[in-house]
Description:
The structure holds two protein chains of two kinds. By secondary structure, chain A is α/β, with parallel strands linked by helices. Chain A has twelve helices and twelve strands. Chain A has helices at 48-56, 83-87, 101-104, 111-123, 127-140, 146-150, 159-171, 189-206, 217-223, 241-246, 251-258, 302-306; strands spanning 6-17, 20-32, 37-41, 64-73, 76-77, 94-97, 177-181, 209-214, 226-231, 234-240, 311-315, 318-321. In chain B, a hairpin with a 5-residue loop joins β1 (12-22) and β2 (28-39). In chain B, α4 (112-122) packs across α5 and α5 packs across α6 (159-171). The longest helix of chain B has 18 residues, at 189-206. Chain B is globular, with a radius of gyration of 21 Å.
Amino acid sequence: MKQPILEIKDLAVSFDTYAGEVQAVRGVSFSLQPGETLAIVGESGCGKSVSMQTIMGLLPSPPSRIKSGEILYQGEDLVKKTDKEMEAYRGKEFSMVFQDSMTSLNPTMRVGRQICEGIIKHQHVSREEAKKIAIEMLRKVGLPNPEKCYRRYPHTMSGGMRQRVMIAMALSCHPKILFADEPTTALDVTMQAQILDLMNDLKNNTGTAIVLVTHDLGVVAQMADRISVMYAGKIVESGTADQIFYNPRHPYTWGLLGSMPSVAQSSKNAKSELMSIPGSPPDLFAPPKGCAFAARCPYAMTACQKVDADTFQADDGHMVRCWLMDSRAPAVTPPVGRHAAGQTGKEEN
Amino acid sequence: MAESNLTQAPLLQVDNLKKYFPAGKNQILKAVDGVSFSIARGETLGLVGESGCGKTTVGRTILRLYEPDGGTVQFDGEDISHLSGKAWKQMTRRMQMVFQDPYASLNPFFTVGEIIEEGLVIHKLYPNKAERKERVYQLLEMVGLNKEHANRFPHEFSGGQRQRVGIARALALDPDFLICDEAISALDVSIQAQVVNMLMRFQREMNLTYLFITHDLSMVRHIADHTAVMYLGKMVEYGITSELYSHPAHPYTVGLLSAVPVPDPEYCRTHKPAHLQGEVPSPINPKPGCRFCDRCPRATERCRQEEPAFTEVSPGHYAACHNL
């Protein structure tokens, strides 16, 4: 295995609020190899965006606070860096594409100037040269008439065009890692498909590693090499895309996979009940003592309520945080995946 | 399903519905431009399309939240587009709507109990206050909340719970017909599944008829009997859901379906469909001819001149395209 470009070790982030401490991220570890796409999947409030923003150094402190953990970027611990030092990394070594392109672009600046800002700062070039690079980037992301786009304001562009501008901006200084936080959630499916194609093309051409944060498992299947599933501030399962989709081991992953209908599903499944996860995620002001998913888990045992699960290795590189993996636990047949009971073959579309 | 359409008069029949909005100097935004469909009692019609295609406007115009600029809406055999006063009020009891945004569609100054009760008060359904309370509790329990929730305010609830309140409000008057306008789009996947299962259960138990407006094509495949695809104010394809998904006829439907990400890594590695390029053009003063022709891979000169009419591709399956 190659040396990972980014390694997160036991990261915990809390927010201090008037109502108390919100434990948004409670011990997250993962690593990222150069050039790969890692998807972080989970529902709203599971801490996936907070983890990303902490790595980028974007969360103001207070109210946020890194309680423990290390963020190793090429061996250097970013937790110890000051804001000033982080500026040299942001935009150059890694950059971010946000979900909402309307609020994350400056409405008072033409998009060209916004792209140039980072180029001038990190590549130490003149404004004219930066403009050339910016226009080249706009062309690369597939915007028609890039010279004209350079002079436009964000509000005159559609959501898909703005998202392309964001990607152009993020990739303008050839970062080694691109963090994409729900990059296509606000877009229509046809535009989403175009943006995902674009991100895949750019990744293949530049070798940039991508950390993709999303709740859409369809997007994940299309993009990810590896997947981490997050729940209530912890990673509950991680593995390659095939391991997670075809051999999921955590009940939460089963629930996620089961609760979405598929366009390619066979017609006899239509009109049947979707598998749903009862209840809602726990309150992170006071996370439960045991496994956070125990209250919603149909397979929960007494141990689950009391002690949080250890991490077990299911397969090479496939980690699961669940007591069902323990040798003393009863055997459970997963309701989804290749080994599921009654699994029908895929229908060609 | 096709036979039931023939033997039974549809509950809702929409003919050539039009809604135009003024868009500045002599400009007209044709949000809905001649849409026709019908829904049989107890069935679900899924209305899909990209944002800006006019699907929400269709729903709102049926309920006359927007006054239609043309066409008729027949509900249970009666033309409702010109009803007013008492007759219209009686009709609204039978048609209800669940809105997209569970944060904006509940009045923050009302408790959940008052929100659900409002329709009952307006229609004087339960003049006895205690009975009315009982009905509110019953509705809350139906949607998976409990009666303690009646005294709380909307901000105390999560998105999924608020959407349940919205559904309880819509069901309070015992309607026949429910328009769900992106009712589940703002929710997380696992919560979406809960709400969809609940809606399907209510349909079975109360023989409800749904118009399910959404951009989520996989969800429509799951719950709809018939599916209608809209593009720029026009309906481009209509058919039985399974038939439309397995044999899409219109090039726009083909493009739309191929763009839906399939949650299967192996499928993604082997299938690399060519995606639709470009964006939805502006609906203001549209050009003559087929509205999809600028993005259409099959477009010919005829498509630019002449607007295609709805033709039957296979029994019960219609598409508006010259090159079928």
